Automatic annotation (TrEMBL):
Keywords: Annexin, Calcium, Calcium/phospholipid-binding, Metal-binding, Repeat. Coiled coil: none annotated. It comes from Ensete ventricosum. GO terms for biological process: response to cold; response to heat; response to salt stress; response to water deprivation. This is Annexin. Ca(2+) 3 binds at D298. GO terms for molecular function: calcium ion binding; calcium-dependent phospholipid binding; phosphatidylserine binding.
Length: 316
């Protein structure tokens, strides 16, 4: 559920293109005009703006935005203008090119997105980078991370509600035994976490809790400094409650010594039209502060204005 506000009726894409072109002309860029247009248009309309802009002015809208804007504001606007699938493709490519074990963006994309959204992102990846996402993940990751991440981005998951209860019992036992043995990257652990549907995994996690009197994520905290264990916990959290996981990413991005603007932009631009309302509600429950207030406190200038427009202001 989105908290974005859109004017009614929307201006035509051609009118918006004219306004954006004006923002690029003259002495200095009119960032406020860019925000007033792009931050208040739904995805389908932004797609049309980009198409019509190329028709009228002979270049992709991304080019003048890239040329005229700077730093965190530029990054957020460019992500926002991309289609959701292309945005995920860009984010995934950045991760695989600068791979580090602590990065959770591939897990976000593979687990939080619906199966069709992941497939669309993989198609966009191939179209934009002329390579296959799975091949790039395999080429840039190593050891247990490769064993985990390649099937995670490869598998087509069933999205229905049907659950095999006997399977959830048997696989809960497998997971418990491997975790107890500290054999976290065992092929059975990876097979279960990367191939089962979300409904099946939720049933397995519930069975695990009931049978062994501990949530699976608590048992996966045996070594807090182990990055692979942290990756497994991220997968489990994304399956159990993606909005809670995403709220935590934002909270950590804001609460660090120095804001993690990249993480903040990524979550806000990818979720503003999806589940931002739930993320905001969770943020308030967890921190007793409205998310827009936290963003306002930790960002400045055009970057702040743009993110606040996407987050949506709470009524006083």
């Amino acid at each position: 559920m989105s908290t974005l506000t859109f004017p009614s009726p929307l201006p035509s894409p051609a009118e918006d293109c004219e306004q954006l072109h004006k923002a690029f002309e003259g002495w200095g860029t009119n960032e406020g005009l860019i925000i007033s247009v792009l931050a208040h248009r739904p995805a389908a309309h932004r797609r049309e703006i980009r198409r019509v802009y190329a028709e009228i002015y002979g270049e992709d809208l991304l080019k003048p935005l890239d040329k005229e804007l700077t730093r965190d504001f530029e990054r957020a606007v460019l992500l926002w203008v991309l289609d959701a699938a292309e945005r995920d493709a860009v984010l995934a490519n950045e991760v695989v090119r600068k791979w580090s074990p602590g990065n959770r963006v591939l897990i976000e994309i593979a687990v939080v997105r619906k199966t069709e959204e992941l497939l669309a992102a993989k198609r966009a990846y191939q179209a934009r980078f002329k390579r296959c996402l799975e091949e790039d993940v395999a080429a840039h990751t190593h050891d247990e991370y490769r064993k985990l991440l390649v099937p995670l981005v490869s598998t087509y998951h069933y999205e229905g509600a049907e659950v095999d209860k006997s399977l959830s019992k048997s696989e809960a036992k497998i997971l418990h035994q491997k975790i107890k043995d500290n054999d976290y990257s065992h092929e059975e652990v990876i097979r279960i976490l990367t191939t089962r549907s979300k409904a099946q995994l939720l049933a397995t996690f519930n069975e695990y809790h009931n049978e062994f009197k501990n949530p699976i994520n608590k048992d996966l905290k045996a070594d807090p400094k182990n990055e692979f264990l942290s990756a497994l916990r991220a997968i489990v959290r994304c399956i159990i409650c993606p909005e809670r996981y995403l709220e935590k990413v934002i909270r950590l991005a804001i609460n660090k010594m120095g804001t993690d603007e990249g993480a903040l932009s990524r979550i806000i631009t990818t979720r503003a039209e999806v589940d931002m309302k739930q993320i905001k509600d969770m943020y308030y429950k967890r921190n007793s502060v409205a998310l827009d207030s936290a963003v306002k406190k930790d960002t400045t200038g055009d970057f702040e204005d743009f993110l606040l427009a996407l987050v949506g202001h709470e009524e006083a």
